[in-house]
Design brief:
Length: 405
């Protein structure tokens, strides 16, 4: 089974060879058909036919449907229908101010926008590069992992392997670096964010006041850029491990993969009370920081990287390398339980259940049926739209799927 890192190396090898020689949109979805051939009855030769129509998928409450992707890892032509568009290990989905989904097409090094009829690249050429500032469609990203919407209505891209954060202005179609210089290191706390150093920034999240939180993955920290553009650390002492619950977040330990072969990890989000939720991936837990008191606690996961605990308290449940956490308007918490190949849900009473996928059974199946009977394959990212529909980056199925509210 290929890991994200091995697939990325494969893509890079191909690149080197070439150098040398809705928001609640009712997207129809089910297993896509990519065309067929017929046999001429007189000659016995195969003849091309038009692509078969895509089978519809019922957008009923609790049902799961594929909205983007063929299941083939690759990069096809621009402007294809969403379910005739190839993706390559999509990492996450963001709903933009225009209410459209934007996909972090990780191993294609692009950000792509989806409407009801087509998929278009809005950031990136598809080639690896150092992510220079300038025209968004001319820059070369290196494995982008996440986008958040800033208070100004722009997007903040986590240019992960570029070790910097970039602001994408969709009106001007430009990119500007706002934090990090591309060097994988740590530095800059107490000074301007533009001068800081990051090491694999995975994700960002904004609080109601406009402060921006950053998962600085390989630095084993969560950092914050305040409204004066000053950066500080709010969680993590820089050493990977698990410690510090019920104490100051800055003294605690989180554990996220580092090194050259590390996969993305540790996405974050704000809950409805202004707390920061953290997918503490390698500790197999979800943790919560109270920004007012600075205290960190665990809210889900017992640290055992297996599957278990549905129907009981989230703290007693087993998670396996959770990579993302999101909250709906009712306060329910959704977890991308990546290595269990499912999405878990914590209700207001703190009880955990399986929301999508069949935990412990990776695969692809179930479009048009109840989400918790479907199969997913190591989902990395989640997001919700204003209607409460949940979008899943079904990463190793090279698809984006939706569970209807």
């Amino acid at each position: 089974m290929l890991t994200l890192h091995k697939l990325a190396l494969h893509k890079l090898a191909l690149h080197k060879l070439a150098l040398f020689a809705a928001a609640a949109l009712a997207f129809p979805a089910c297993d896509p058909s990519t065309g067929d051939t017929d046999t001429d009855s007189d000659t016995g030769e195969e003849t091309d036919t038009e692509e078969a129509p895509l089978e519809p998928c019922d957008p009923a409450p609790g049902r799961i449907c594929t909205i983007v992707g063929t299941g083939i890892a690759g990069l096809g032509p621009e402007g294809n229908e969403p379910r005739r568009t190839d993706l390559y290990l999509p990492q996450d989905v963001t709903i933009g101010p225009d209410k459209l989904p934007y996909i972090l097409d990780w191993n294609n090094h692009r950000v792509r926008r989806v409407d009801a009829n087509a998929v278009h690249t809005v950031v990136g050429t598809g080639e690896l590069g150092d992510a220079p500032d300038g025209d968004a469609d001319l820059t070369n990203l290196n494995h982008p992992t996440h986008m958040s919407v800033s208070p100004r209505g722009t997007f903040i891209i986590s240019a992960w392997h570029n070790s910097k954060l970039m602001e994408f202005d969709p009106a001007a179609a430009t990119l500007t670096t706002i934090c990090g210089n591309g060097m994988r290191s740590f530095g800059g706390d107490g000074g301007p964010a533009a001068m800081a150093l990051l090491d694999l920034p995975t994700a960002t999240a904004f609080d109601a006041a406009g402060n921006m939180y950053i998962t600085d993955q390989a630095n084993q920290r969560i950092r914050m850029v305040d409204t004066m553009d000053i950066i500080t650390t709010v969680v993590g002492n820089g050493m990977p491990g698990f410690s510090g619950d019920e104490g100051p977040g800055i003294d605690a330990q989180i554990k996220l993969p580092g090194g050259q072969a590390a996969p993305p990890a540790g996405r974050i989000s704000m809950d409805n009370d202004g707390n920061l939720l953290i997918a503490d991936t390698s500790n197999n837990r979800i943790r919560k920081l109270d920004p007012v008191t600075g205290i960190i606690i665990t809210i889900a996961g017992n640290g055992d990287p297996t599957y278990g605990g549905d129907g009981g308290p989230a703290l007693a449940a087993s998670l396996s390398r959770p990579n993302d956490v999101e909250v709906d308007k009712d306060g329910n918490i959704y977890i991308a339980d990546t290595d269990n190949s499912c999405v878990r849900k914590i209700d207001g009473a703190g009880i955990i259940s399986t929301f999508a996928g069949t935990c412990g059974q990776p695969g692809y199946d179930g479009d048009g049926d109840a989400a918790n009977t479907a199969l997913l394959d190591r989902p990395y990212g989640l997001t919700l739209d204003a209607a409460g529909n949940v979008y899943v980056a079904d990463t190793h199925n090279h698809r984006v799927r939706i569970i209807y509210k």
